[in-house]
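Whether sequence alone determines local backbone shape is best considered at the level of individual chains. When preparing material for the folding task, we compiled for one chain both its residues and its backbone structure tokens. No coordinates are needed to read the tokens, only the vocabulary itself. For completeness, the protein is quoted in full, as a sequence line and a line of structure tokens:
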Amino acid sequence: MTFSQLLSSMRFAISMLSIVGIASIIGTVLKQNQSYESYIIKFGQFWFDFFEALSLYNVYQASWFLLILLFLVSSTSLCVYRNTPRIIKDFKAFQDNIKERSLRSYKYSFDIPFNDFKKNDLIEFLNKNQFKVKDKIVNDKDQLIVAKKGDYQKLGYIFTHFAIIIISVGGLMDGNLIFKFQESLGTKQIEFYDKPISEISKKSWLDSSNFSFRANMLLVEGESQSVGVIPVKDGYMIQDLPFTVSLKDFNIEHYSSGQPKSFESDLIIKSKKNGETINKKISVNKPLHYDGVTIYQSDFQDGGTKLDLALHDFYSSSKSIPMKAEVFKHNELIIENQKMNFEFEDFRLFNILDLEFNDETKPSNVGPNYRFKVRNESGQAKEYENYQYPMLFDGRYFFMSGMRNSPQEEFKFLRVPADSEKTLNGFIIFKDLMTDDKKINVAIKRLSKENISDASQDINNIEDGFRTIWKSFIVGGYNNIALNIDSNVPPENQEQVADTYIKIIRLIANRAISDYLENNTDVTLFNFDEIESFTQDALNAYSDSFFYGSNFLVELKDFEQVQASGLQLTKSPGQFWVYLGSIMLVIGIFCMLYIQEIRLWIMKKNGSKNLILAFASNRDQIDFEKFVDKTKNEIKKFYSN
């Protein structure tokens, strides 16, 4: 078998089509053109590298996919070239070179008696039944009428094959072949670092005359841009546009639950060629077409929300540190000669979480949250996610602050109890009391006097014991208490001692709160039915803070939200051809499945009083058998009249 024979064979075409189908399934199931970081989080390093080697993160522009499309076009084109002339010939042919023996060999062959042949009337009868008819004399004396219908079934083959060719060509047109060629020559290169646009090498720019592209643009109200960003592997390219896009206004509507309902952008487009300006409002599924580029409303993101923050030190009673921050910008903080960078990455006004109310789980809007990283001088960073308002758990309200060491991990949340007014102020007062040695000493002295049961006991020893336990807790939380018990207490007594230590810690904390309230009678932050529950939750939060990764709890005081409209700009010359090919494919499949080709031969032998009827079809089905019986009976009735 020669290469051309292999290329034009049905098996080869079906193999290529199957691979394209599998690749399309992968491209549909696996979200395409996402950040490499998100793929690493989802699949892990091993499978990420494996899928990346196969270019599965951008299947439709992968070199192997485009090569298969090229083979598919070549194979299908050869099939069409070889078979179309024969199909057209069959379409026109009536198959009138047939013998009596052949007619009688058909499955549906009958003899029908007649007195008068009435050829012209019979032809008119067949025409009324939508047959194309041809009659001729055979063997110089016998008469043959050939009738056929359903010829368009043959066109289904041509339509489906042309459809595959056209769809594949459309895919190739949108496959960034020019950029791939330029990249292979080294005239274009992917940019991997975040830089101001003015500093990006021209090798990473694509001209506005680029044949096809799919770029992203993020605009804040009042902002203008004339370039888009094309994600490529783990980097990007800058796509120059033939016009400038300005965002005049951005609106978003929400359902009562807080979920987005609709969002739309009021755009101003100004042509670079002639200065033409148009105003157009776009929304989801209502794009703008201009100068060969389609602008879609794809999403919305934060555009640099301004945050008013307060940083509370867990382990110091010093005043909170105010901080003005902005999403996508960094804040540097130097404390005790240690430099920390706060990198704010995102802000969301609405967050829908499944929370339990009255033993029933319901999706609820829990209000704003924000994400940031705290990076130390060595470059190591921990990521945090904080919610502005407290959430209800087990009948009590907690402020939630999540931390993770890397994007591959889930957030582990620190629960900080809210006070009776659902603010963080009560916990701030509590932790300041806990780290104030003077006030704790007063609380320990009063507690020791209240708990001395024997006059012979030395109250100083009791106080020293309480201080030792408290100090162990303050420097390391319950985990430090557990380590001390493991080191100094026999195993059989460890559980009893642990319970005693925890009870003492809670008693000291409760006494410190009571002392504070005695001296601050106007404070209403601790108006709980059982303040002991708040104290216990606050002690747990303080203890867990040693695993929090930062000395500071960041509180959002206020914000000024800035939203950005996410646009997708596409230039897709192959789109029309893909749509056209899809329509042709539907037509072709319809022709092949729903149009039945039927042929009928009627032969009148010279001197015979019986007509020979023979029927044939490309699909011998029950419906065809019913058609044969109906047509045969109608012809019998025609000759019986």
User: Anything to note?
Assistant: The radius of gyration is 41 Å. The first helix runs from residue 3 to 8. DSSP finds 15 helices and 26 strands in the chain. The mean pLDDT is 88.
